[in-house]
Amino acid sequence: MKGRYKCFLRSTSNIDSKTGQKQIALPPKVWKQMGWKLNENLIIDTIKNGLEHSIIIKKEMTENE
Fold first, then answer.
1. What is d(CA 8, CA 15) in angstroms, rounded to the nearest whole number?
2. Residues 31, 58: contact at Cβ < 8 Å?
3. Host domain of residue 27
4. Other beta carbons less than 10 A from residue 45's beta carbon
5. What is the pLDDT of residues 5-61, one digit of tens each?
6. I need a labelling partner for 34 at 20 to 30 A (CA). Which of 14, 42, 58, 62 fits?
7. Tell me, what DSSP letter sits at residue 60?
8. Of 16, 14, 11, 15, which Cα lies nearest the Cα of 32?
């Protein structure tokens, strides 16, 4: 899907040099409230609708969840 990115939650934003996976930093107040932990796999969807732009960040669900 265009505008969709996979990343994992870290304490800093970057790109992991070993895997090439994107890393996103969110304030602990936000991710703790969501019940997320560091290194969780996340999905980021960017949505552009005319002049309105938004971002949706959600936890990637696994088969065990």
1. 10
2. no
3. 4-59
4. 14
5. 888 888 778 887 777 888 888 889 989 999 999 989 999 999 988 898 999 999 998
6. 14
7. P
8. 11
